[in-house]
Amino acid sequence: MSNIRVNIRGGAAPPGSLADYLKSVKVKLVTISGKGGVGKSLVTAAVGLGLALRGYRVGILDGDIYGPTIPKLLGVTDSALYVDSKTGKIVPVSGPFGVKVVSIDFMLPSEDTAVIWRGALVTQALRDFISQVDWGSLDVLMVDLPPGTGDAPLTIAQSLQGGIDGSIIVTIPSEISRRIVVKAIDFSRKVQIPVAGIVENMCCFVCPDNGKTYYIFGEGAGKRIAEKAGVPFLGQIPMDPLLSKHLDEGKLHEFLTLDNGTVKHIMSIVDALASKYADKLRQEIKEEKPKRISLMKLPGEDEEQGE
Ligand SMILES: Nc1ncnc2c1ncn2[C@@H]1O[C@H](COP(=O)(O)OP(=O)(O)OP(=O)(O)O)[C@@H](O)[C@H]1O
Ligand SMILES: [Mg+2]
User: Fold this and answer.
1) Which residues does 190 contact at the CB level (< 8 Å), separation at least 6?
2) Which residues pair with 166 in a beta bridge?
3) If you measure from the C-alpha of residue 31 to the centroid of ligand 2, how many angstroms do you get, rounded to a whole number?
4) Which of 132, 130, 44, 159 lies closest to 95 in space, CA to CA?
5) CB-based contacts of 153: which residues, under 8 Å, 6+ apart?
6) Quick count: other Cβ atoms within 10 Å of Cβ 34?
7) Which of this chain's residues are annotated to bind ATP (predicted)?
8) How far is ligand 1, taken at its centre, from the CA of residue 20, in Å?
9) For residues 71 and 63, what is the distance between their CA atoms, to the nearest angstrom?
10) What is the rounded CA–CA span in Å between residue 16 and residue 130?
């Protein structure tokens, strides 16, 4: 285990803000929840793939170091990260619809390997995933986070200091969840991440036998939670056995091409986010102009000149 190295060339992420490393990413979103197992990773992966289906350039950073699941959901568990010898940077795995993916899972010897690291190493790994990865120009970078408001969300928030455009808060429809959502909103505000909105997962059950939708916990809970908390409601995703099957088989991308109610719900969340950040997504990324380096440099002359 101890031989897993995240940073490359022995050079770890520099101290301080890493926001500059993601200058060519138009919109940065994190998925959070105060509670485990509510569907954060599903939402991250589904929104990421959905945006890619709509033609956006998407990256997904799996920020769950102890329980990485993004590669499994995207069906890319057999892939590996490599370092480009020219740039010295980590090249993300190319997933379905060209989505760029980085996860600690790609560095583990087997999918059953546990990462037994203290918080400082997790912090370092997350910072390396921002600064040592060649994310390139992206429209959207989605960051999947572990449950709660601990080390990982804090590291991401602090490393990008005010550079995160929004948090997607995932909940399930129950009173206990409502309280946890309020905590997640409080966390988001404290670390200066605007709340993009709430996604209610497992809002209801779509019966495979008759296609009917059953609201097991009552209808509209997610919307009410959002209204009470004063944050936007992005939409809901039913508990769907067909979705579950596709997730287990790493075929979420295939599921999203089907014509059914659950896919419509997911794509409406995708569209809500795309229109929320439409202005940013429309903006051109100002690529750094290549710098001309004079080979005839005389002492005292400027080393680099813009074009
Ligand atoms: N709407 C849904 N329909 C069917 N299965 C679902 C749905 N949402 C989530 N699941 C399944 O529930 C499990 C938990 O989902 P997921 O891993 O996305 O949750 P999580 O919040 O990321 O969990 P953790 O807190 O452990 O990171 C997964 O096996 C996923 O496939
Ligand atoms: Mg998860």
Assistant:
1) none
2) 29
3) 9
4) 44
5) 30, 32, 63, 145, 146, 187, 191
6) 22
7) 34-41
8) 32
9) 12
10) 12
Cα 232 from Cα 69, distance rounded (Å): 27
- Give pLDDT tens digits along the chain (307 positions): 334 444 444 456 677 789 999 999 999 999 999 888 999 999 999 999 999 999 999 999 999 999 999 999 999 999 999 899 999 999 999 999 999 999 999 988 777 778 777 778 888 999 999 999 999 999 999 999 998 888 888 888 888 887 999 999 999 987 777 788 889 999 999 999 999 999 999 999 988 888 788 988 888 888 988 998 899 999 999 999 999 999 999 999 999 999 999 999 999 999 999 999 999 999 877 655 544 444 444 444 444 444 3
Q: Closest ligand 1 atom, CA of 37?
A: 23
CA distance 216 to 213: 9
Task: Give me ligand 2 centre to Cα 223, in Å.
Answer: 23
Kindly list the protein residues whose Cβ atom lies closer than 6 A to any atom of ligand 1: 33, 36-42, 64, 67, 69, 146-147, 201-202, 237, 239-240, 243-244, 247
Rounded distance from Cα 293 to ligand 1 centre (Å): 51
Token pair of 47, please? 């929104």
List, as residue ranges, the binding site.
Answer: 34-41
| Known binding positions for ATP | 34-41
DSSP 65-89: SSS--HHHHHT-TT---EE-TTT--
Q: Set out the domains of the chain in order of their start, with CATH numbers.
A: 19-305 (3.40.50.300)
Residue from 257, 221, 215 nearest 238 by CA: 215
